[in-house]
Amino acid sequence: MVSRWSFTKISTFFFSLVAAGIMVAMLVLLIVQSIPVWKHEGWSFLTGTKWFMRTHEFGAAPMILGTVLVSFTALLLAGPVGIGAAVFASEFLPARLRLAVKIIIELLAGVPAVVYGLLGVLFLRNWIYDLLTPFDPLSGDTLLTGAVLLAVMILPTVMTLADDALRSVPAAQRTAARGLGLNSTEVVLHVSLPQSARGLLAALLLGLGRALGEAIAVFLVVGRQDNQWPEKLLSINPLIESGQTITTKLASSETNIAYGDPIHWGAICGLALILMLMVAGITLASASLQFFSRSRHAS
Amino acid sequence: MRRKLVHHLFRGITALCALLACGILGWLVWAIARRGLPAISWNFFTEQIKLVGASGGIFFNIIGTGILLLTALVATLPVAVSLALLHGVYLRDGKRKRALETMLYVLNGMPSIVCGIFGFIVFVNYFGWGKSWLSGGLLLAIIMLPTVTVALMERMATLPSKYVEAASGLGMRQSQIIWSVILPQTLSGIITGSLLGLARIAGEIAPIMFTATIFAGASFPKGIKESPVLSLPYHIFILVQDSFDPGVAEKIWGTALVMLGLVFTLSLIALPARLKIHEEAHHG
Hints:
The structure holds two protein chains of two kinds. Chain A has 13 helices and two strands, in the order ααββααααααααααα. Chain A is mainly α. Chain A has a single domain (41-294), classed as MetI-like (MetI-like fold), CATH 1.10.3720.10. Chain B has a single domain, classed as MetI-like (MetI-like fold), CATH 1.10.3720. Chain B contains eleven helices and two strands, in the order ααββααααααααα. Chain B has helices at residues 2-36, 42-46, 59-90, 94-109, 112-126, 133-157, 161-169, 174-185, 187-201, 232-241, 246-283; strands at residues 49-50, 55-56. In chain B, strands 1-2 form a two-stranded antiparallel sheet. In chain B, helix 1 crosses helix 11 (246-283) and helix 6 (133-157) packs across helix 9 (187-201). Chain B is globular. The chains are: A mainly alpha, B mainly alpha. Chains A and B meet through helix 1, helix 3, helix 4, helix 5 and helix 6 of A and helix 1, helix 3, helix 4, helix 5 and helix 6 of B.
């Protein structure tokens, strides 16, 4: 094939450049637009615990903490269940049933965030409130509620990717291990899981990335209370109080108000930038573990 | 004896995990269908909202979501096809291919709220469009782009190389091969990818809440500037936040059911082709 600069080739490169341009523009715009807040706050934008827009105090630490707490708790809940389900589907189920499970998981992955939010508002927060009665919570809108909801939302991602990772272990190895007299559980524990460890870790990381970036469902159940820096960090307290994550802050109507004020708007863009870098970092780590997973998890 | 015990225990625990995952979907569909079905009627689809959502239907919400999805699809397709061709045909160097894949991977993970902020800066303010269906559609296009591109890229990877070789042997130019061999042969990948991409963005709110959609008072858009649309997910999002009116509750569940139906239909149509590509990619 002689490659010449045909119309097709030119337009292909043009549209590809557009795609690359959008990504660069996103990063550059957020950096440029957030400059005022870095000038105004310096590093205390990251470490400050107070966010009062009227007095121009912008500290993002409680939101960063909220984001980290919510998404890691979600991963802690969804990770084992997702991997367990993937092990069962790929190692113990016959092909047809496996397919059925896979379809169900695909559908679960497609459920819109706002539907999860709706169920969260009407069921989950009441359940969490009842569950937490011994701790005397103010309401059911807590970081924990957000985390449980997120766990359900990232479960399909973790499970599909874990399933793919397990399936990429060659069947010959399983057969050989069975031939040595191991039963199917031992094959999973000693062959499949160790062989697919990188892929499983990648699945967990991608689930974490999804949890970090999800806005709408968490917005509805997390309580969205500003300036919640817990007195005791290493206790259950931060989890059972209402709080704010970066995404819920960005999704709040404050984003609309902020635009007229460069420093306030800078703070909003700064939050978006932090979130973007966190998620991109985790995504890249996951990608390098298991380069470009063959699966197309739908959401 | 101990081995057997561990075996059964392990199998039982993993089975419980799988049951839990599938059970959640079952419960979710049941919970929404049970409460949403009473709201579904002909008028629900053909009337516009009245009394702040307590009465009337979701006609313009469906129209608005349709407009957003269509705009996103039209904007995505040329870019997705270009990226897939770049990956499958033009880039020969493995490193560059990897760079492109990594870019798609990162874009795929990009939080949609960040895209929303980006669109708010660019479309709403720099371009001066205000809240407009076009800015929302373009943002949704960015979000669905990786899904469509990856599906198409994978379909292209399974295209037997002898097709291209034969076409090349007939003396076709590269652009002719692309238009008359590669694209027609990978059409199923384009369709599957589009359906999956649409399913993914149909329920998105974060990108469109500041850029394209309002709760009430919009019908068909008349232009580009300051022409917002209503949408299904935003309807639920607003109603669920401060509503204790049982009439409204019924409408919320009804809307949720419609949305769930839309998304499930899109992903189910795409499913057979998708599973096939998947199997080929693994064993092809």
